[in-house]
Specification:
Helix content: 55-70%
Number of strands: 17
Number of helices: 33
Structural class: alpha/beta
Strand content: 5-15%
Largest sheet: 8 strands, mixed
């Protein structure tokens, strides 16, 4: 059976979905499953089925007990649910010590939590749940901290199979799976509570428990849900523990969730503010916390009200209460401590669907909204978080206070020191250890840049490891690391450099001898005595090896031992000895190579001459007359006879030198393998090149011999072609003499048919003549030559037939030109008889006048055709006559169109005159219209006057048209329509503008009256029934911020709002609305100013009356005081009691 679960990965600390295969068919206890999974300190709480294995097992799944021992079915998949992990517990304070918080118990971090947290990688997010006891925190957290069973179910479908004990890491953070839990699993999940819950009054959570979930975004670390011990529970052992827990949690959590049951209580705010007040006592540099942005969420569990939301939380719960400074101080402390606040609710668990959806939303909000714990910008991992928790717990136990900033500073300094030590160790392993060996060769100066580069690389590693640390200690630690790395190098390098100088002479001597031996035994130098002719490349390689170049042994000596020698005399002597030895060895090698090269060249030439003679003997068997190409094909390049000659050359060369194969070398790899092959001592790179070159020359000579025979065959073929050309010329003359006569126009179809018949006849005659010539001469003609001659005969006949076609076309063109001339003459005669028009004529009348002219033109054309007696016979003549008749009809039609255009010109002139009459009447009418835009809206009587003006303009235009005597009725009608359009358009425009401006004027009058009424309504509160001030008012009431100034501004604002609407509807370019709004605003200002000046005068009068009454009262007081005081000068001194009275 497969057990699926989420757990941190030991190698990287990230949460991964894992699978473990365990044997089925036995009862599993939770402890046994814990040992099998190996995920201590996590403890198994329950197993949730992810699939149904099928068959009988599926039918018996209801019989599986929901609680341990677990009986697993073969092939089944289960999700493992782990219990929460204890984080903080309280233990008695040792005798003789006193806890800083005044309690008999102190907080300690549980070993299980330390073991689990140390396996987590950064970043880590903390969401803490606090609040009163028995309000549902643990039950809610059990639902929020549920594992993603859908992802595990999908993975179980994709990863079927396995064996017992196998552990498979599948990955984490996957979303969007379409898998579903099996039937009954959802019910079982609801019964799995990671955090301890009960329905009794006894508290279940002592200290702090937590559960870990992977963040939904891959690579974003882990989210810890903290379940804190509740407050305000009479059954708890020690109520002081809650304050210590909340002080510790508020120092770390990125989100604090204050839980309440049913509704928000004042006690929730008081507990939270007391904890915040204790946190204000935090000591340390800067008094900064680990988290930079702690969020507050007020969570109402089993909420009884519907309207609890963020707005309610801000406006009602956290709002200041008038006259209650202590409560206001509590709320102000919460608002300052938590800039980001929200209120969320959960329905009662009896509402299953609503509760489930609310939990899912709340879970997603906590996962997405949480931020990592940071120290100086560096995200904390599990080990660092454990150190912070342990230190904070110790401080609370000793002092009752926490110092997150001091803890963070020490933790950051320890991280920087560890990074510096790791960079120093890496520098020693990567750079110093290899360079100590190279120092023995004396490369002191050249190694120093590499050491400096190593130092820079070590510093870069330190920077990368501390890139997220923003503390001031970071540059100081980096400078100390750089100084330590630099100081440890100089002394070591100088000491080793002095020890090398004593062995320079021995090194030079040994180097020269070793290099001479290396030259003699080097693979690039041919071995002597030579068994192969060394090639130019081999000799150049040997010369390069013995020379002064960069790749030579001399340069190698200079780069090796010579580079480490400080004595110039020892270095020069060794260099001269090495050069002399290499020069002598190269001289012997060149002499032996020249002798062997001459011998083998003669052997190759002998083999080539024999092969050429065998090919020439075969060519002599070819006959002297023309032969087909396939007869010469075996002698061509690459064919049978040339291939045999080349093979004979290869065979004879092989008799001189034992060859591993026949033929020349094919590629560079084959040459290199033959040169270094001891089993083929006579075949080297030069031999291969020489044989290949002579073989290419032989092949070229054979091709020359073949081309000579081929040229002779071509000459015989040419002579046969000349005889065929003479026969073609004779037959072409016969074709030309039999062409049809050109005295009349022929049809194209007749000429085409004659050409086909004659061509077939001549081709048959040509074939008979060729056959007779072959029988007389006794030599066969080349079939290709005969076919080419046939083609030439066809081409010549085609050219002559095309010439006859062109002549026939010229005769047709002449006939067509004559017909066209007669048509043109008929048209010219028609033009002379055209009627002349001097004014506008109706189109129907014009057509009747033109009809006799048209009939005369056609009669003239037919008479001319009969008189000329043109040879227009057959279909071609009929077609020509029809085209000429149609062209003449088109010309006559154009002439009629010209007459119609003249009539149209007369019509347009009359229309233009009529339009000018209409324009003059329109100008007169426009002069009598008011200017636009209108300065005011016209009344209906004024509009009626304008209509009468338009009627008079129509009567005047009718008289003008009658006086003009137009022949075209359309001219007068068009002029009247133009005037009517202008009159109607002008009247409509003026009427619409008048109506709009009358309405706007009325709207502004009403708006001004409404503003005045609003102003009077605002003054009514301060006036008596007669509209006067009943008593004196301060002068500030008339200021802009005063009562009267505010009423005045409100009235003006009301009018301005209406003015803005009016201006927005104004026509572009018309400022009438703007001027109207300005006039109304001035009128309103005048009314308001007069009203306020009247009230000011009343107020001045009231003040004068009160000043008079005050002066009278002061006089009465002076008189009464004068009667009480003794008269001066005193006749005796007064005792103190009398003075007091």
């Amino acid at each position: 059976a497969s057990l699926w679960f989420w757990a941190p990965r030991s190698s990287c600390g990230a949460f991964r979905a894992r699978r473990v295969m365990v044997p089925s068919g036995r009862a599993w206890r939770p402890k046994a499953i814990d040992a099998e999974l190996g995920v201590a300190p996590l403890e198994v709480l329950d197993l949730v089925p992810l699939n149904s294995p099928g068959g009988a097992a599926a039918e018996r799944k209801e019989e599986v007990p929901p609680r341990p021992p677990f009986c697993l079915v073969n092939g089944s998949h289960h999700a493992v649910v782990f219990k929460s992990v204890p984080l903080v517990r309280f233990e008695p304070v040792p005798a003789g010590t006193v806890a800083g918080c005044g309690s008999a118990q102190r907080p300690v971090i549980c070993p299980e939590a330390v073991q689990f947290l140390q396996g987590l990688s950064a970043p880590i997010r903390v969401v803490a749940f606090v609040g009163p006891g028995r309000c549902g925190k643990s039950s809610t957290l059990s639902r929020l901290a549920e594992d993603d069973f859908q992802v595990l179910a999908s993975m179980s479908e994709r990863c079927a199979g396995g064996r017992g004990g196998e552990v498979l890491e599948v990955g984490g953070g996957e979303k969007g799976m379409n898998s579903q839990l099996v039937k009954g699993a959802d019910r079982q999940v609801q019964e799995c509570n990671k955090f301890p819950v009960s329905h009794d009054a006894e508290p279940m959570t002592a200290g702090v428990d937590f559960a870990a979930l992977p963040h939904p975004t891959p690579g974003e670390g882990t989210v810890l849900f903290l379940d804190c011990e509740g407050s305000d529970n009479p059954c708890t052992d020690n109520t002081a523990n809650y304050r210590a827990i909340t002080t510790l949690v508020l120092s770390l959590a990125c989100q604090v969730v204050v839980c309440a049951f049913g509704s928000c209580q004042e006690s929730n705010l008081e507990d939270l503010s007391a904890t915040l007040a204790a946190r204000e006592l935090i000591r340390g540099e800067g008094a900064e916390r680990c988290t930079q942005d702690t969020k507050l969420c007020m969570l109402v569990i089993a909420c009884r009200f519907r309207a609890l939301n963020d707005a309610y939380f801000e406006s009602q719960v956290l709002a200041d209460k008038e006259g209650q400074p202590s409560r206001n101080e509590t709320r102000d402390l919460i608002r300052k401590a938590f800039p980001h606040r929200c209120l969320r609710t959960l329905p009662h668990t009896s509402e299953e669907e609503e509760y489930k959806e609310a939990v899912q939303r709340l879970r997603q909000e906590f996962l997405d909204g949480s931020v990592p714990i940071r120290a100086d910008g560096m995200p904390l991992n599990g080990v660092q978080l454990c150190d912070v928790l342990q230190t904070l717990a110790d401080q609370i136990a000793r002092l009752g206070l926490v110092e997150p900033a001091g803890v963070m500073t020490r933790m950051v300094q320890r991280h920087l020191q560890q990074a510096a030590e790791a960079a120093e160790r890496a520098f020693d392993d990567r750079c110093m250890a290899p360079l100590r060996d190279e120092l023995g060769a004396g490369f002191v100066e050249r190694l120093e840049p590499r050491l400096r580069a190593g130092i820079a690389e070590a510093l870069a590693e330190f920077d990368a490891a501390t890139s997220k640390v923003a503390s001031e200690a970071r540059p100081r630690t980096r400078a100390q690391l750089e100084q330590a790395l630099s100081a440890s190098l100089v002394g070591e390098l100088r000491t080793q450099n002095e020890e090398l100088r004593s062995a320079e002479e021995a090194l030079v001597e040994k180097s020269v001898q070793d290099l001479l031996v290396a030259f003699a035994t080097d693979p690039a130098v041919p071995r002597q005595p030579l068994r192969q002719v060394p090639g130019a490349e081999a000799l150049r390689a040997a010369e390069q090896l013995s020379g002064d170049g960069d790749e030579g042994l001399v340069a190698l000596h200079g780069r090796g031992v010579g580079a480490s020698i400080r004595c110039a005399r020892v270095a020069a002597a060794g260099l001269m000895q090495l050069k002399a030895g290499l020069h002598h060895a190269m001289g012997r090698l060149r002499s032996e190579a020249d002798a062997l090269r001459e011998k083998r060249t003669a052997e190759v030439e002998e083999a080539a001459a024999a092969a050429q003679r065998s090919y020439e003997d075969a060519l002599r068997r070819v006959p002297d007359h023309y032969v087909a190409e396939h007869v010469l094909d075996p002698f061509g390049p690459g064919r049978t006879h040339q291939a045999e000659a080349l093979a004979a050359f290869d065979a004879q060369v092989g008799q001189f030198w034992p060859l591993p194969r026949t033929g020349p070398p094919e590629d560079a790899e084959e040459v290199a393998s033959a040169e270094t092959d001891d089993t083929n001592p006579c075949w080297g790179p030069w031999e291969r090149a020489a044989v290949a070159s002579r073989r290419a020359q032989l092949q070229e000579r054979l091709e020359v011999l073949f081309h000579r025979v081929q040229s002779r065959n071509t000459r015989v073929r040419t002579e046969a072609g000349q005889r065929c050309d003479a026969l073609v010329a004779q037959l072409s003359e016969d074709f030309a003499s039999s062409l049809p006569v050109g005295e009349r126009c022929w049809e194209d179809q007749e000429l085409t048919q004659w050409e086909k018949d004659k061509s077939a006849e001549l081709e048959a005659a040509f074939c008979q003549a060729v056959d007779a010539a072959q029988q007389n001469e006794g030599l066969p003609y080349c079939a290709e030559v005969v076919e080419e001659a046939k083609k030439a005969l066809r081409l010549r006949c085609w050219d002559m037939w095309q010439e006859r076609l062109r002549a026939n076309s010229c005769l047709q063109e002449g006939t067509e030109a004559a017909v066209e001339a007669m048509r043109a003459a008929a048209v010219e005669a028609c033009k002379e008889k055209m009627p002349e028009i001097a004014g506008y004529v109706d189109p129907g009348t014009l057509a009747t006048m033109f009809e006799p002219v048209r009939s005369a033109a056609f009669t003239h054309f037919e008479t001319s055709m009969a008189a000329q007696d043109l040879s227009v016979h057959g279909a071609w003549g009929t077609n020509l006559t029809e085209r000429a008749t149609g062209a003449m009809a088109m010309a006559l039609h154009r002439m009629l169109n010209d007459l119609q255009e003249q009539a149209e010109i007369f019509k347009q002139e009359e229309l233009k005159r009529a339009s000018e009459l209409a324009h003059r009447r329109i100008e007169v009418f426009d002069e009598q219209l008011p200017g636009q835009p209108l300065t005011r809206g016209l009344e209906e009587e004024e509009l009626e006057i304008l209509r009468k003006v338009g009627g008079k303009s129509r009567e005047a235009l009718a008289a003008d048209v009658a006086a003009a005597c137009f022949l075209c009725k359309e001219a007068g009608e068009a002029a009247m329509a133009q005037l009517n359009f202008r009159i109607e358009a002008a009247l409509r425009s003026i009427g619409a503008e008048s109506l709009r401006k009358r309405q706007i004027s009325q709207q502004m009058d009403e708006a001004r009256a409404s503003a005045v009424a609003k102003f009077e309504e605002a003054l009514w509160y301060y006036l008596d029934a007669s509209g006067r001030l009943p008593s004196f008012m301060e002068e500030s009431a008339w200021d802009a911020e005063g009562d009267f100034g505010t009423a005045r501004a409100a009235a003006k604002a009301q009018l301005e709002a209406v003015s803005a609407e009016v201006k927005a509807q104004a026509v572009p370019g018309d400022r009438w609305e703007t001027r109207l709004c300005e006039r109304e605003a001035e009128a309103l200002e005048t009314v308001l100013k007069e009203r306020l000046e009247g009230l000011w005068k009343q107020n001045v009068a009231l003040k004068d009356k009160e000043d008079q009454r005050a002066a009278a009262a002061l006089e009465r007081v002076k008189v009464e005081l004068g009667t009480i005081l003794p008269k001066t000068p005193l006749r005796r001194g007064l005792v103190p009691s009398s003075v007091g009275e």
